[in-house]
Design a protein that fits this description.
Blueprint: E1 5-11, H1 19-24, E2 27-33, E3 40-45, H2 46-56, E4 62-66, E5 69-80, E6 87-94, E7 101-110, H3 119-122, E8 126-129, E9 133-138, E10 147-150, E11 160-162, E12 166-167, E13 173-174, E14 181-186, H4 188-201, H5 223-227, H6 236-239
Parallel strand pairs: 1-4, 2-6, 7-10
Antiparallel strand pairs: 1-3, 2-3, 4-5, 5-6, 7-9, 8-14, 9-13, 10-12, 11-14
Length: 247
């Protein structure tokens, strides 16, 4: 883990449809879930929150100060407006230094010094990245900012790298299956033909489901809904996709 990332937010009493006014003023509503204790409703200045999320993602601990109290957290859910891609709502999950936490870690290709592409790409082939992040479990201090794979191993059509090929630091457990594919090498013409076939076969209703995190989500409804253990607070990442006006 690199440098400490901090964010100061205000606590809020405004719930339900009233949060629309916050967003109009450049304020993002959110909540801190704290190990079964009463959740803390908060609001953050948009630009400050956006900067923190760009740096921390869903893997780097963020020290959130709210109401004079500090919480070491991980961003569990960041909800975006589907049209403008603006932040609508944020959920922070408080973590403890002595307890392992689940986090989503970005996956990046690593190249030999002086290179910015794999041997396959340098030979005119196409490397299709099929995994951009993986879920891990680790103590907060052990969470890496990124996991890498050796892209120099991708040389010929059909070559694949999987989760088993990731460089994983000690103390970090990757939760995806070892056989889960990260990247595959394709012949450009074969990949183009496959894409054309897929487009020609597409039927109405074949559209992929939209990740609920990127829908205009965030249901808070009532304070009880957010703080009830095992209730809506535990399902917020799913429920958020239904009504952004109730966050």
């Amino acid at each position: 883990m690199s440098e400490q990332i901090s964010l100061t937010v205000d606590t809020r009493d405004l719930l339900g449809k009233g949060v629309k006014r916050l967003r109009q003023d450049g304020i993002v509503p959110g909540v801190i879930h704290d190990h079964g204790k009463q959740s803390v409703h908060v609001q953050a200045e948009y630009q400050a929150l956006q900067k923190v999320f760009t740096t921390a993602g869903k893997h780097h601990p963020v020290v959130v100060t709210a109401g004079g109290k500090k919480y070491t957290t991980i961003i569990k859910t960041m909800t975006f407006d589907p049209v403008y891609n603006s932040i609508m709502h944020v959920v922070f999950g408080a973590v403890k230094a002595n307890e392992k936490v689940d986090a989503e870690i970005p996956v990046h290709a690593a190249y030999a010094e002086g290179n910015d592409a794999s041997p396959a790409e340098r030979a005119g082939l196409i490397v299709l990245a099929q995994t951009s992040s993986v879920h891990v479990k680790a103590f907060p201090k052990d969470l890496p900012d990124v996991l890498t794979y050796d892209a120099e191993k991708l040389t010929a059509v059909g070559d694949q790298l999987t989760v088993a090929d990731l460089s994983v630091p000690s103390g970090v457990e990757v939760e995806e299956e070892a056989e889960h594919v990260i990247a595959t090498v394709f012949e450009p013409s074969a990949l183009a033909a496959a894409n054309e076939d897929a487009a020609g076969d597409a039927q109405s209703g074949d559209e992929p489901d939209v990740d609920s995190e990127h829908e205009s989500t965030a249901v808070e409804g009532t304070q009880a809904d957010e703080i009830r253990p095992g209730g809506k607070e535990q399902k917020e990442s799913k429920d958020e996709g239904r009504n952004p006006e109730k966050s």
